[in-house]
Design brief:
It contains 11 helices and 20 strands. It is of the alpha/beta class. The strands form 4 sheets. Strands 3, 4, 5, 6, 7, 8, 9, 10, 11, 12, 13 and 14 form a 12-stranded mixed β-sheet that branches. It has a 4-stranded mixed β-sheet with strand order 19-18-17-20, with helices on one face. 30% of the residues lie in helices and 26% in strands. The termini are far apart. The longest helix has 18 residues. It has 2 domains: 321 residues, 3-Layer(aba) Sandwich (Rossmann fold), CATH 3.40.50.12780; 94 residues, ANL, C-terminal domain (GMP Synthetase, Chain A, domain 3, 2-Layer Sandwich).
């Protein structure tokens, strides 16, 4: 893959403006976007990126969901006739009804190339044998990654319709060198490998995505314990935009936005510089999003050097803005809980129960300990960790070994309950 080179940030922005205006022209035939572009006064294009950001309103996922509901099955955000589209996927529906998403062959090719960029940042090569521990259902997930691995020249091995033990056996038999899965499932596979003595000595790289986690130091430390000597690479994306960031081994606390394909901005930063990531898909024209509120909370950390001066997101994805819970005046994010729980040894799995039945929202933490680990030590360590980190006492209960669910895709550890 030959990526464009830029002498400086200004040259990259000139490229983005050219792509943006090409997109605005293309969207004159899109029933969803054409009236919005006209109302913003951008039918003739934008003079610069600042004008586009000032004129074009933000787009919320609820608008896409309402459009799909009013014009099923795909809504009106279609630049071309349905016959021109070759792929259909849908969101994982962790925050509502799934959105169905169509792609043309050209758009799919663009997104595969972004995954190739993710893999090249992880130093994968045609010598690698890549195992995808993924169910290959309608969620877009690792479908793109599977094709990108082939394009890069890797031996791509599908891992659907297997349990964890079977996957480890297949990985070892094929001398797999690279693994693709969620951070949660990488933890699960590592635990099964440890407990059942199913080592994969050839494995050297794990590329994760699908949920925050691999940018969290405690999660990375736990994965390093379970997979000694293996390099972990994070990335992130979503059905509506595709893969949009990558991580390198020498900067594990930074995600780099692939800005040849995306116009990125961070809006409403707080006193710590953490705001919401907003993206415009510059080269996915069949079903694009313009100034889309991803709900991912990030901190802009300057730019990479030439030849690709990409935006840097320090600390990766900090949290999801739509998943915050306020408990006794303290803002609690799932990523913060995950980071704190993973600091404590002996936790095999956990669940967070959210009770909104009273005037004040309350949390309860359910812990499944690892076999033969004393619950008293875990409880004491968790109480101390929560008290020191967020000045909050969270009630703790314990589950029997194997009682809590395990997840291949996005973990759903937060559940609504009533006391």
């Amino acid at each position: 893959m030959s990526l464009p080179s830029f002498a400086d940030r200004a040259a990259l922005q000139a490229f983005q403006l050219e792509r943006l205006n090409m997109l605005l022209t293309e969207l004159r035939s899109n029933p969803f976007w054409a009236p919005r572009i006209e109302a913003a006064g951008l039918t003739g294009g934008a003079r610069d990126l600042e004008e586009f950001r000032a004129r074009m309103p933000l787009l919320d996922k609820s608008e896409l969901a309402a459009d799909q509901d009013s014009a099923p099955p795909y809504g009106t955000n279609l630049t071309y006739p349905v016959a021109d589209y070759v792929r259909c996927h849908q969101t994982s529906s962790t925050t509502g009804a799934p959105l169905r998403w169509l792609d043309t062959a050209r758009d799919w090719d663009f997104m595969v190339e972004r995954w190739v960029e993710v893999f090249e940042a992880a130093h994968l090569s045609p010598d690698d044998r890549f195992f995808f521990a993924f169910s290959f259902g309608p969620f877009i997930g690792f479908w793109l990654g599977f094709e990108a691995a082939q394009r890069l020249g890797c031996l791509a091995i599908p891992g659907g319709a297997m349990d964890s033990r079977q996957r480890l056996i297949v990985m070892a038999a094929n001398e797999v060198t690279a693994l693709g899965c969620t951070p949660t499932y990488a933890l699960r596979l590592g635990e099964v490998a440890r407990d059942e003595g199913l080592a994969v000595p050839s494995l050297r790289t794990i590329v994760v995505g699908g949920e925050p986690g691999a940018s969290l130091p405690a999660v990375r430390a736990r994965l390093a314990d379970l997979w000694p000597g293996v390099t972990l690479h994070d990335h992130h994306g979503m059905t509506e935009v595709g893969a949009c960031t990558f991580q390198t081994a020498d900067e594990p606390d930074v995600l780099h936005v692939m800005e040849t394909g995306f116009l990125a901005e961070v809006i409403d930063p707080d006193e710590d510089g953490i705001g919401e990531l907003v993206l415009t898909t510059l080269q996915r024209t069949g079903r694009p999003v313009l100034r889309y509120r991803t709900r991912d909370l990030v901190r802009a950390g300057g730019f990479d050097p030439a030849p690709r001066p990409y935006l840097r997101l320090e600390g990766g994805i900090r949290a999801r803005a739509d998943q915050m819970v306020v408990v006794r005046g303290v803002n609690i994010y799932p990523t913060a809980i995950d980071e704190l729980v993973r600091r404590v040894e002996g936790v095999a799995e956990y669940r967070v129960e959210v009770d909104r039945s009273a005037a004040l929202t309350e949390l309860r933490l359910v812990i499944e300990p690892e076999p033969e680990v004393a619950t008293s030590g875990i409880e004491e360590a968790l109480e101390r960790t929560f008290r020191e980190a967020i000045s909050l006492r969270v009630p703790i209960a314990f589950a029997a070994p194997g009682e809590l669910p395990r997840f291949e895709l996005k973990a759903q550890r937060w559940v609504e309950v009533q006391a």
